[in-house]
């Protein structure tokens, strides 16, 4: 253990390359022995507090006044080099809560065991330590403003709330602007989330709502949201000229950057201007909040 703490290469070999957390490390290095010589309080004091996880709210406060929804992927991934399946701490906890709420007395998502009633039963019942953070990522205040949303995978989360809200506004007789959602996932049969709900919203919004889907693993070639954006270049450009808001949510590492680039290309081709000018227009849209992002990686 002393060597793990002082020799970087040894640390990489024993810990990082194996993707171990501290409990797994203690178990493995202990080889069945307990760490009784080291006070438990010392471990606890040395561990950082668990960090908050952020989730986009995926419901509309107009439709659900007293309840917020989140849309999350339960992380359980095989990482090359890891001797175990790496399981997301919070998403499996949320899954355990859901299982409990559905009547399972001993939830064990992916074989994990959570003390979901909290310290001294503080969270008994279905209680979660949660905090709602103010966000500027929201619908335009005027419902007649058109919107273009790009949200592959869990990036669709806030847009489910947006479309839910616009469907309710349309039902209430308000004039709702064009609402286009570009959604992408791997396979239609496996991860096309909210498939049935979109149909309900379509009924309420009629041709004001358009869902454009990109299934990346259903055909011989990858189809991504930005490819679909290109197919809809003319409509996208027309809506932007009518001051449509443009929203992107999801993966910051690649998708969001590529969507930005493609949008600049669309503007350039459609308006017959150089690509550099298209990029400047996108930059200006960002500065004026006409282009908004809610991204993570
Ligand atoms: C602004 C914002 C909005 C977000 N909105 C959403 C949303 O709407 N929906 C959503 O699903 N997510 C969203 N996220 C991501 C979310 O906050 C969490 O990061 C995600 O749910 C994973 O949390 P977790 O605790 O389950 O996983 P963690 O336990 O934090 O693990 C996450 C990943 O880290 C890696 N990892 C963990 N432990 C190890 C290890 N020992 N060794 C190597 N790798 C490891 C694995 O790849 C694992 O899958 C958002 C993030 C931000 C910043
Ligand atoms: N069946 C499963 O096991 C499964 C299903 C979904 C998600 N997950 C896991 O869940 C996590 C995140 O899931 P998620 O649903 O938010 O996202 P995701 O499924 O990883 O991605 C959503 C969609 O975006 C596509 N994509 C990948 N790179 C892109 C890019 N540069 N530009 C545009 N689109 C791109 C993906 O295609 P490609 O991935 O085909 O390239 C997929 O169609 C990941 O850890 C993932 O491994 C697992």
From TrEMBL:
Coiled coil: none annotated. Pfam families: FAD_binding_1, NAD_binding_1. Keywords: FAD, Flavoprotein. Residues 149-259 form the Oxidoreductase FAD/NAD(P)-binding domain. Gene3D superfamilies: Nucleotide-binding domain of ferredoxin-NADP reductase (FNR) module, Translation factors. Transmembrane segments: none annotated. PANTHER family: NADPH--CYTOCHROME P450 REDUCTASE (PTHR19384:SF17), NITRIC OXIDE SYNTHASE-RELATED (PTHR19384). This is NADPH--hemoprotein reductase. It comes from Cryomyces antarcticus.
